[in-house]
Specification:
Layout: H1 4-21, E1 37-40, E2 54-57, H2 59-70, H3 79-97
Antiparallel strand pairs: 1-2
Helix pairs in contact: 2-3
Length: about 100
């Protein structure tokens, strides 16, 4: 993720997202424009990711999703399925808290 190729891909993802939505990139959980990370929902196409394989996330929410994944109860469901569920759950929790 520190490679020059990753930084190029990240910039391209941001450009595609802005063109697709017509809005600034925001955290997929809380909607903050102060996002830090581009999170992979799947590694199936690593190095050849599709736009929908990744979402922008602020660091706290990115860490929250990874902590939940690392707890290990989900792993038998497959990474992409788990990540999409965890992302949905994080959004729902954020909305419940009214933040």
């Amino acid at each position: 993720m520190a490679s020059a190729a990753w930084h190029v891909r990240r910039r391209r993802w941001v450009q595609e997202e802005v063109e697709r939505t017509g809005k600034p990139v925001r955290c997929a959980v809380c909607g903050s424009e102060e996002w830090d990370d581009l999170h992979h929902l799947t590694y199936d196409r690593m190095g050849h990711e599709r736009h929908g394989d990744m979402v922008a996330m602020c660091r706290p929410h990115h860490e929250q999703v990874h902590r939940a994944y690392d707890a290990g109860r989900w792993r038998s469901l497959g990474y992409e399925s788990v990540m999409r569920r965890l992302l949905r759950l994080a959004r729902e929790e954020h909305e419940r808290r009214g933040a």
